[in-house]
Amino acid sequence: MAYYARALILALLSIFLSSALAAPMTYNVVSLGAKADGKTDSTQAFLSAWTKACASLKPATIFVPAGRFYLRQVAFSGPCKNNAIIIRIDGTLVAPSDYKVIGNSGNWLLFENVNGVTISGGILDGKGTGLWACKASGKSCPSGATTLGFSNSNNIVVSALTSLNSQMFHIVVNGCHNVKMQGVKVIASGNSPNTDGIHVQLSSSVTILNSKIQTGDDCISIGPGTTNLWIENVACGPGHGISIGSLGKDQQEAGVQNVTVKTVTFTGTQNGVRIKSWGRPSNGFARNILFQHVVMVNAQNPIVIDQNYCPDNKGCPGQVSGVKISDVTFQDIHGTSATEIAVKFDCSSGNPCSRIRLENVKLTYKNQVAEASCNHAVGTSSGFVQPRSCL
To answer: For the chain, how long is the longest CA-to-CA vector?
Structure first.
């Protein structure tokens, strides 16, 4: 009997020890000196929490309670000793109101070389309105900081986060693999410059779900080197739509492939679904793209491929885009266009768009049939397509 009792005690002890070892460590930024008054610089307390969480051999949680926490530019760098760090934000992180403090630093909050980081909840207040006003005045201004950047990182989750009034891009995913964003909200004025909602480049297996983006530039922009991107259930507007590109800025450039954009709504946007490339030589490409189940509500340029992008007519007039665009499907897209030409394929004369498919498209302009325009585009249409296909 004593033997069984001893065995039971040992078994219970081993269960207790293993669960204790697996229990995550929690670091509260307030316990480490952060002040929730929106004025006191809490940068060091956040860095201290990160250093402890990153050094932990066990899963770790960084907890940010309710309140407003002022942070300067912060880089949360890895690699870490564990690959399960959760940052739970119940409060608001506030950038410096003087845009010059972080305006030239590239990123306000940067995660680099990390694996297995989850950011859950919270508001990131980028305080960008002062910089937007500076840019609008034509004065010399800093370019602005991205609010939240992920660089060279894997297995990232961003959930129920709000980005407010970013100086420049709201969220950037660069050189990452396996990133999931869900329930993200992006809020900025429709005339805020260069405030892309989510920008993805040189990354694979990125998923963006159930998100609402209101901003002054692309709601989602997809840069060179993006593969296996899935975007679903996103509301965009105001903004410049969901854009693949600009591609082809560089002569040597990684391509974009396997992109799905489905169940999205564009309301009062400058574009709907768009692919754009610079009108100059490049070895870039965009292929295997699906835009599916899309609703346009008074969107300008609902469906557009523009291979003659040349801002300020610098560096490209008289040249043709080298970017090869192929296997692009527009399926079940309907609603209202704010421009008479609702479908515009302006492809490269040197590298015409190929295997473009229109399936069940119905777009109207002022309660009339809209128009379509094609240059150097080859493809097919099936089902009901209005405006009538020019492919």
So the answer is: 93
CA–CA separation, 286 vs 271, rounded Å? 18
pLDDT tens, residue order, the chain (391 aa) = 444 445 444 444 444 434 444 567 999 999 999 999 999 999 999 999 999 999 999 999 999 999 999 999 999 999 999 999 999 999 999 999 999 999 999 999 999 999 999 999 999 999 999 999 999 999 999 999 999 999 999 999 999 999 999 999 999 999 999 999 999 999 999 999 999 999 999 999 999 999 999 999 999 999 999 999 999 999 999 999 999 999 999 999 999 999 999 999 999 999 999 999 999 999 999 999 999 999 999 999 999 999 999 988 888 888 999 999 999 999 999 999 999 999 999 999 999 999 999 999 999 999 999 999 999 999 999 999 999 999 9
Q: Taking the complete model, does pTM exceed 0.90, yes or no?
A: yes
- The answer to whether residues 297 and 339 touch, using CB atoms and an 8 Å cutoff, is no
**Residues in CB range of 87: below 8 A, 6 or more apart:** 61, 62, 64, 117, 118, 119, 120
CA 139 to chain centre: 29
Nearest one of 283, 218, 226, 234 to 259, comparing CA atoms: 226
CB–CB of 273/303 below 8 Å? yes
- Strands 368-369, 353-365: pairing kind: antiparallel
Q: How many CB atoms lie within 10 A of CB 39?
A: 11
The alpha-helical segments, DSSP class H, found in the chain are 2-22, 43-55, 129-137
Pairing between strand 146-151 and 107-112? parallel
Instruction: Report the catalytic residues.
Output: 217, 240
Query: Which residues are CB-contacts of 84 (< 8 A; sequence separation ≥ 6)?
Result: 24, 59, 60, 116
Contact (CB, 8 A) for 126 and 144? no
Question: Where are the strands (E) in 115-196, listed by range?
Answer: 115-120, 123-125, 146-151, 154-159, 162-164, 171-174, 177-182, 185-187
Structure tokens at 309: 């992008």
